[in-house]
Design a protein that fits this description.
Length: 191
């Protein structure tokens, strides 16, 4: 299938080298800055201090994102080292002028939140971070981020287009979901 603009639709696997090809890596992460925040937010709300409650939620969310971005920087410059000399200023970072991406389940490149289950299992994330997944695959605490790192030189963010019934059926079989479950998780992207 091609996008409405006539370009090929992308998949995250497009940014992974074929087996037997060049050496390649994919990373996984779960980061939180929200442990204990919900109790403090509740305390502020009960005291009628909505400003502090909102501010605490905002700061915790930004710290979680900053943690994921810091880890991505470490991956690029040190651990995988493909961008050891990278020296971007804040504007360059905001413009995503670096190599690699850190997509997350539930976002446009991977709209299925259920992928967080495999990510959490791979990393033993609950034990390692104190985070847990809700039945709807939201991360608790909310000020948390989970996803993958891809360092492919052409990796970029994209949105999954409309998904046809044949693709849903194929995905359901590979993901171990019933067709109804796959349709529910992917409802916003169904053709």
């Amino acid at each position: 299938r091609k996008s409405a603009a006539g370009r090929p639709n992308l998949c995250l696997v497009d940014f992974v080298a074929p087996k037997g090809g060049v050496a390649d890596w994919a990373g996984a992460f779960v980061v939180t800055a929200g442990l204990g925040a919900a109790d403090l937010v509740k305390k502020y709300e009960e005291a009628g201090d909505d400003y502090r409650a909102i501010l605490l939620k905002s700061v915790a969310d930004r710290l979680a994102e900053a943690g994921a971005e810091w880890l991505h920087l470490k991956v690029r410059r040190e651990w995988w080292g493909y961008a050891a000399g990278e020296a971007l200023d804040n504007e360059g970072l905001i413009a995503e002028q670096y190599r690699g991406i850190r997509p997350a389940p539930g976002y446009p490149a991977c709209p299925d939140h259920v992928a967080k289950k495999a990510l959490f299992a791979l990393l033993d994330a609950e034990a390692a971070t104190g985070c847990a997944l809700t039945t709807s695959c939201a991360i608790d605490p909310a000020a948390s981020v989970a996803g993958w790192y891809f360092g492919h030189p052409e990796a970029r963010y994209f949105g999954v287009g409309r998904i046809g019934p044949d693709q849903v059926a194929d995905y359901a079989a590979r993901a171990g979901l019933t067709l109804d479950e796959a349709n529910d998780w992917l409802a916003a992207n169904l053709d």
